[in-house]
Write a structure and sequence with these properties.
The complex is a heterodimer of chains A (304) and B (438).
Chain A lengths: L8 H4 L5 H9 L7 E5 L7 H7 L1 H16 L5 H23 L10 H28 L1 H4 L8 H27 L11 H25 L3 H15 L11 H7 L3 H13 L8 H25 L3 H4 L1
Chain B lengths: L3 E16 L9 H20 L9 E16 L3 E5 L6 H8 L7 E7 L2 E4 L12 H11 L4 H15 L14 H13 L5 E5 L7 H16 L3 E5 L3 H7 L2 E6 L2 E7 H12 L7 E3 L9 E11 L6 E10 L5 E9 L5 E5 L7 E2 L3 E10 L6 E12 L2 E14 L23 E5 L8 E5 L7
Parallel strand pairs in B: 3-7, 3-8, 5-6, 6-7
Antiparallel strand pairs in B: 1-2, 1-4, 8-9, 10-11, 11-12, 12-16, 13-14, 13-15, 13-17, 17-18, 19-20
The chains are: A mainly alpha (304), B alpha+beta (438).
Chain lengths: 304, 438
């Protein structure tokens, strides 16, 4: 081949400009690091990587939130109507028909709504996160980043809905003339607890869902079933004392009790042994979830 | 600091694939139930052990890559070529950390950005502006970096007017331009590119090639996977040829492209192609193709008899024939000039096409038979199955033999006249390229 049929660019890279490269490359970027890829090598700086990709996390979360409210006619209205209607039904069924007692002097609708807040947070994180990897298959198979980002970002959408719900709760409380007291300062802690409680099982199911697609059918079932076995429509104080500890092994019980304790002031007592049991279950599930997720995330791109 | 930025050491990637063992000829309900139960037991067992579920009852190991060793130095632009299934994409996926190697190791120095697809993560509902930020973040840019280059990206993509329109309303050209523009403004130390040059119009492709050349000029390391041999020749000084998961050549790009041509394409001319049973027709497809070459240079005619079969209704379709040289560079496309449409009724269709070939340099040419209903909707392609050989030279009077190095086609004639230096009379020297001897 003679030299005429080449593009002018060819002559340019005949001269290696390594020095120049190093200076331009490191301008603005972090120092070069050595990356070793090997079979079964557990990534040692996984958590640092996660921090490094925090902007991607923010972008994905922002994408999920803005896509959710784009091109929807009722948009935010839906986020309001759903919990309100559920509250009305639960108040009628459990409060008026079954005549279950409320906690102290708390109006029944407020009791129900305070329980629904964490339940909706839990269930939407669970269902959004567990489908997130499969629905972002094109990203997973084309770009590297710590996969933990995707289900976590999906969880942010649930937090936005949660923020809307909490405004509704305050409106309902104001309607009934119910004032929370100082315990409300602990609310952020319980929100974190609710997120952690849902992330554990969510990550576990997310990882399983990539490998075995059957799990996507299991989630709606868990969500539907969980609504009734968790104290959403009633106070957990109605559970007989002998069973209460075992009942608290459902981590959502601890989360809901915590929410009611800090939102409904002194009216709703925290049953300590049960709460600690819930905390322990949350911690174990979170650990299991992250461990299983991390163990399998390297194979996601091959399986998806 | 050593100047090697990528070092691969006996790298391998294994996949497990399942097969159905031969189907029994008489299917009895009892057998079906028994087999179903056996499969269920096996999947349950696999699941308990956390293994991958495999369809079929025979499991086979498949090595997509095996014992790959290479080193890439800073500032090198390396092409990776090979047929489909040779392991190129797997290699890129390992290097960009999407998948883990099964054996061996790779050491990478510096920030890697991989571009395995343009517009990865573009969301149709989001606007162009939003997608620039999203796509940038996905490709590994920080928000500050994107903001700094935002105007440049928009200018490169030429979409200023549509910045706040959701990308689902973009034309495919705009979409691709925007996607490439974001990618082109990445500043990684190592850039891994797969086939993206195949997109966009010619002018945009040229712009992309220029941008990549510029990147290499700034000392960045570029790995380019492409089927476009011209791009590899132009961009790369070095190329690696993969075949069936192993490196068969590693060296100068020109020789690599030649060796690829020699090793990959069956150069013997083949005149007939029959559809194999393993590739059933989906909607409309070729069932048989016959192509013979007749006439003499430079008036060769490629006579094609094409049998098509359609199993579904379709609006209308037409056939196009691409003629490629032995390296895989498309030389020309032949579109029939007669009313081209095959009207869409299920059944068999038969057409004959005669392609008047231009004067061609001796060598082997392969073809690509395409049928589709629109220039973007492909219904069927038969690639590299029909090949023809040109033996005669198109220019009998020429002093030097033609070779491929000087182009694939030759001019019909070149005439030289001289006006000065000769005092007697005007001399006319014919360099009769392609002139038929009278």
């Amino acid at each position: 081949m003679n030299s005429f049929d080449r593009l002018p660019t060819d002559g340019a890279h005949a001269v290696p400009i390594a020095e120049d490269a190093r200076s331009t490359a490191s301008a603005g970027a972090q120092p070069e690091r050595l990356l070793i890829l090997e079979a079964g090598r557990t990534e040692r700086n996984y958590w640092r990587d996660l921090w490094y990709y925090r902007e991607l996390f923010a972008m994905l979360a922002w994408r999920d939130v803005s896509v959710r409210y784009k091109q929807t006619v009722i948009g935010i209205v839906w986020a309001i109507v759903r919990p309100l209607l559920t509250m009305v039904v639960f108040t009628i069924v459990f409060g008026n028909l079954a005549k279950l007692p409320s906690d102290g002097a708390v109006p029944y609708p407020v009791l129900v709504f305070a329980g629904m807040l964490p339940w909706f947070l839990f269930s939407s994180i669970l269902s959004d996160a567990s489908n997130s990897i499969v629905s972002n298959a094109n990203l997973i198979s084309k770009v590297y980043f710590p996969r933990l980002i995707v289900p976590s970002a999906a969880g942010v959408v649930a937090l936005v809905d949660f923020a809307i719900n909490i405004v509704i709760l305050f409106a309902i409380m104001a309607w009934y003339g119910f004032m929370p007291n100082w315990q409300i300062v602990f609310l952020p802690l319980f929100v974190v607890l609710a997120v952690l409680a849902s992330l554990g099982p969510a990550l576990f199911i997310t990882a399983l869902n990539v490998k075995y697609r059957d799990f996507r059918f299991i989630i709606p079932f868990i969500v539907q079933f969980g609504l009734y076995v968790s104290p959403v429509g009633f106070s957990s104080a109605v559970v007989p004392d002998a069973w209460r500890f075992w009942y608290s092994l459902n981590p959502v019980v601890g989360v809901i009790d915590g929410f009611r304790w800090c939102l409904l002031g002194g009216e709703s007592q925290l049953y300590m042994p049960g709460f600690l049991a819930s905390l322990a279950v949350v911690a174990v599930m979170l650990w299991l979830g992250i461990r299983h997720f991390r163990k399998t995330e390297k194979t996601f791109a091959d399986l998806i | 600091m050593s100047d090697v930025v990528i070092r691969a050491d006996s790298l391998g990637k294994r996949y497990l694939i399942g097969h159905e063992s031969e189907r029994e000829r008489y299917i009895a309900l009892r057998d079906v139930i028994a087999r179903g139960a056996r499969n269920l037991m096996r999947s349950a067992g696999d699941m308990m052990r956390g293994r991958q579920l495999i369809v079929g009852d025979e499991v086979e190991e498949f090595w997509a890559l095996k014992d790959i060793d290479f080193e890439i130095k800073r500032g090198e632009v390396v092409g990776i070529i090979g047929r489909n299934g040779a392991g190129k994409s797997t290699l890129l996926k390992i290097l960009s950390r999407i998948t883990e190697p099964s054996t061996g190791r790779v050491e990478i120095r510096g920030r890697v950005a991989s571009l395995l697809e343009v517009g990865t993560g573009f969301h149709p509902e989001l606007t162009g502006r939003e997608n620039i930020f999203l796509n940038g973040a996905i490709l590994g840019m920080t928000r500050a970096e994107i903001r700094r280059k935002f105007d440049e990206i928009v200018a490169f993509a030429e979409i200023e007017k549509f910045l706040d329109t959701p990308v689902k309303r973009y034309s495919s050209g705009m979409y691709v331009r925007l996607a490439f523009a974001v990618a082109a403004h990445l500043e990684p130390e190592i850039l891994i590119v797969d086939e993206v040059l195949a997109v966009g119009d010619a002018e945009f492709q040229k712009k992309c090639l220029g941008k990549m050349g510029e990147m290499a000029h700034h000392g960045r390391t570029v790995l380019l996977v492409s089927h476009n041999m011209m791009a590899v020749r132009q961009m790369c000084r070095r190329a690696i040829v993969l075949r069936a998961g192993s490196i068969v050549f590693d060296g100068a790009a020109d020789s690599a492209v030649d060796s690829y041509a020699v090793s990959q394409i069956d150069r013997s001319p083949r005149e007939t192609w029959l559809r194999p049973a393993s590739r059933p027709i989906e909607a409309l497809g070729f069932s048989k193709i016959d192509a013979t070459i007749s006439g003499r240079q430079p008036d060769h005619v490629l006579e094609c008899k094409i049998d098509l079969e359609s199993v579904a209704e379709f609006a209308s379709a037409f056939v196009a024939i691409d003629i490629l040289d032995e390296v895989g560079v498309a030389l020309m496309q032949a579109l029939p000039t007669v009313q081209p449409f095959i009207l869409g009724k299920p059944g068999r269709h038969q057409i004959a096409l005669d392609v008047q070939l231009p004067p061609l340099v001796p060598g082997t040419y392969t073809t690509e038979f395409w049928v589709g209903s629109h220039n973007t909707q492909t219904l069927d392609v038969v690639r590299d199955e029909i090949a023809f050989e040109v033996l005669e030279t198109p220019t009998p009077g020429r002093t030097f033999p033609h070779t491929r190095d000087h182009g694939a086609i030759v001019p019909k004639s070149v005439q030289q006249y001289s006006f000065l230096g000769s005092s007697e009379r005007l001399t006319e020297a014919h360099v009769s390229e392609g002139r038929r001897p009278e």
